[in-house]
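Changelog-adjacent note: as of this version, every example in the card shows the full chain rather than a window. The one below runs 105 residues end to end.
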Amino acid sequence: MFLPATFSQYLSFIWRTQYIIYIPRVPDFCVLVSYIFVKWAGITDPMSGAKGGAIIGLLYGAGMNLFMYSSMEPNYGNMLTDIIINSVMGAIAGAAIAFIIGKMK
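Full-length structure tokens:
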């Protein structure tokens, strides 16, 4: 397989081959949580940030899994595990974001 040496060659390779660039969801999730905490909820302490992040992570995980398993036979064990992992990751991200927002105010 062709491995591009520079970033411009990489972008050219992506454009020519029509590959989808995989971008992890972590930056998008953190921007979403930060916006919700600052503009809508006013969350500035880590405990309430963890609760809010867990709820957002739970909703995100449930939505993602329900969409993913909508066209196949659902595996409820994997679905539940992924929803729990998304909730824990959301709680950790929410606590960290709220801690930083609290320090900035």
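Structural remarks: The chain has a mean pLDDT of 80.
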